[in-house]
Amino acid sequence: MSSTLAVQLTTVKLQLALARRYFRFFGFIDSFQRMSALLGKDGFSSVAGMLELAKCTCFGLYFVLEDLTTLHAMGVYAVSWNGRVMDQANTFWFYALAFSVAGGIWALLVGSAEQPSKKNGKKNNQKISEKAPPAKATVASARVKQIVVDSCDLFIPLELLGWMPTGDVVVGSTMVLSTLLTAQDIWTRV
């Protein structure tokens, strides 16, 4: 590969990464709104609530810190603290993904046990329809898929922070797998 082509491909990669940051620019608002809702609801009353609260908090902090470096990434206003702030942002990204994986595993292992089997103090005597198991299977498979996606995404901050240098092939492969798994859901919503 020629050096000119390598420079062009690197430029394309950097511009695409910058474009993705534009779409995430206001992501902290959604994260902090979910965090606020959890604090008003059951954020501290269950393990699942605490894991979700920690995840939303870390994602919100990641988005805010990443937003602080947008002008630097665009080449508009260079700052000396860009590297330190991005390291902290990536650390919060790692923690958010780790809390998401832990929450997904918790929901798979304990989720059904946390749901009450009684309503209004009476046992639920309704007949279980034939459609109930597929619904549970769908919820469980969605959780497993999210665990796999978040686990794949964990490699990115681990590589960026130098905590687990895996190389471009591993990071690229996990990014492709994560993208393919989430693309299904995105196209379904469209």
TrEMBL record:
It is found in: Peroxisome membrane. The chain crosses the membrane at residues 92-113. Its main location: membrane. Residues 115-134 are annotated as: Disordered. It holds the Pfam family PEX11. Keywords: Membrane, Peroxisome, Peroxisome biogenesis, Transmembrane, Transmembrane helix. GO terms for biological process: peroxisome fission. This is Peroxisomal biogenesis factor 11.
